[in-house]
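Notes to self after the call with IL:
- keep both proteins in one doc
- input above output, always
- annotate only the second one for now

Protein 1:
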Amino acid sequence: MAQPARGPFPCARHGLRRKCPPFASRVRRSLAATRLDPLGLAGWRVCLVNLGLVFANRAADDSTTMNDLRIREGQHEDCDSVLALWRLAGVRPSVTDTPERLRLFIEKSGGLLLVAEAAGQRVGTLLGGWDQWRGHIYRLAVHPDYRRRGIARALVGEIERRLRDRGAARIYALTYTEDGAAFWASLPYERTSDTAFVRTFR
């Protein structure tokens, strides 16, 4: 059977004409050797182009998110949405996860509840603490659909600026998941040998 000609080819979805990626023929030959080439070279070309468009569109979405990202101080009207975002993000619940407690934090913390907004919705949160001795970071949460786009790093950068403005020379970040530990390890944070104890009043 004659092989389709190399060169530009159409994208079945978008009607575009693109050049075949140089590795397409290698993919085809490799699959043909194992009798797993039901699409033929032309079919694999279309698949590879569409895959490239998916990644390109995702990169464009990521860029749009960061261009539209706004970090601001949380307000009383954010409380219900922040609590809902924590649940959606899988944050471990506690007895303080109530609108009343969150409103009290907003009133007393002086701008240390941060909310990240993108595409017209709340997509991230972070709580900061300052006890005149060291800074603290809690409840760093990002909407699952907006992760790996730099939102968490942007929130951390803003809370670090605010805590350092208040005099913090060191900042403790609290996490309880492996993903959280990996995130903080990717920044200039080090594991501490401190052991945390907590007492809860109900």
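Protein 2 (the one to annotate):
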Amino acid sequence: MNLQKLFEHVGYMDEGTDTERLIKLHRAFAFNIPFENIDVYNGKELSLRPEDLFEKVVTKKRGGYCFEMNTFFCAVLKEMGYSVYGLLTRLSRGGMPFGGYVHRTNLVEADGIQYLCDVGFGSDCFVEPLRFELDVLQETHGSTYRIVPGTDPSVEYTVEIRRDAGFEPLMGFINRPAKEDDFVIANYHMNLSPTSPFRLFLMLNRFTETGRYSMMNLSLTCQEGETIEHKTVSWEELPQVLEQYFGLSEMPNHPPQSFGAR
């Protein structure tokens, strides 16, 4: 893998301690590679081979969704000499019970400390890695997270985010390395099942130094600091919006329905 070409693409300088390098690379991915599911929405079968992900992300200047981005991030970290493994993860939205294994995250060791890394969660993604320590409040990019013992019998650990009404579960997992074939199977379902939300809805997110841009179907949310603006985008405006806010030239092959922004 041509790491230097990747580093140039995301504006990353490979220097500092292992912890500093990890944090900087995680931030570089969050700020420069959009979360996007256009290929899935268009019905295209995805590859999780690192060389194909490099071609998509670096050469074609695209993004991807969770299985693509976190598989690629894991491969990059291994190439850089880190000890890292992937975790099959359950998700929760709006306080709902955990579902099946529909997500990948990574556990990484740097300078003797383990970190939870996720560059493919979308709008609620932690911009910097979370230290794998229980009941410790960790703030990154204006959001506060904590890792707690499993809040559901199906998980060993739960990652929570603080909302106005209190902490809410985001993801749950068992700290056991998954095999790459496990991710291939889970990705196949989320990629190609007609009931997968990624087949039904257009979803995009990109963080900036002071906020983020996110999109659900034709509803765009722009956040800069404390200012949040919601816009409804027309099909005709979509190519310009994708280029301006997410740096993408790829288009969905059919119009999504108007839907509330994430």
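Annotation: The chain has two domains: 3-192, 197-246. DSSP finds eight helices and 13 strands in the chain.
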